[in-house]
Amino acid sequence: MKDKTFLDTNIFVYAIDSSGREKAKSQKARKVINEYVANMNGVISTQVMQEFFVVATCKITKKLSVDQALEYMRCISVLEIVYPDENMVFAAARKVKKYQMSFWDAMIIQSAQVSGCYFLLSEDLQHGSEVGGVKIINPFA
After folding, report:
1. From CA 40, how far away is CA 59, in angstroms rounded?
2. Are the CB atoms for 34 and 26 separated by under 8 Å?
3. Could you tell me the residue ranges of all domains in the chain?
4. Which of 13, 22, 39, 120 would staple 6 via disulfide (CB 3.0–4.6 Å)?
5. The pLDDT of residue 19
């Protein structure tokens, strides 16, 4: 089995952001997503899908329609999806205290950890750090 890697929300947002401000990041994000879809070793969580929907339809310059966002989410849902439960919420809350991070970042790391991912691709967390056995990689660094 190939090593699994968790993909954070920002990877998907850059992939669809057609505003042109971050063209290089957009191209890199699409390449990364295609690789993990093709190899079937990418993992996301329902949190990633929720955050993507909000950002894609409300927060980027060239917003997607609800239908476009839903179609994109259908496409990325071929990846393994982590469904949080109460144990994950409690574990993430403990990470907040231990690592002094936001709850939402802790939930992303907890999702990566529970799904057996060693790597977490994210622009939002400290590149090269390791939390709970999950190594953070900024694919745009």
Report:
1. 29
2. no
3. 5-137
4. 120
5. 75
pLDDT in tens, 19-61: 777 788 999 999 999 999 999 999 999 999 999 999 999 999 8
Average pLDDT, the chain: 94
- Cα distance between residue 97 and residue 113, in whole Å: 17
The neighbouring-strand residues paired with 80 are 43
**CA dist., res. 136 & res. 141, Å (int):** 11
- pLDDT score, position 1: 40
Burial class, 53, CB count within 10 angstroms (exposed 0-12 / middle 13-18 / buried 19+): middle
Q: Which CATH class is domain 5-137?
A: alpha beta
Q: Do 105 and 124 contact (CB within 8 A), yes or no?
A: yes
pLDDT score recorded for residue 134: 95
Separation CA 89–CA 119 (nearest Å): 20
Look up tokens 């191209």; give the residue. 27
Q: Cα–Cα distance between 54 and 73 in angstroms, integer?
A: 12
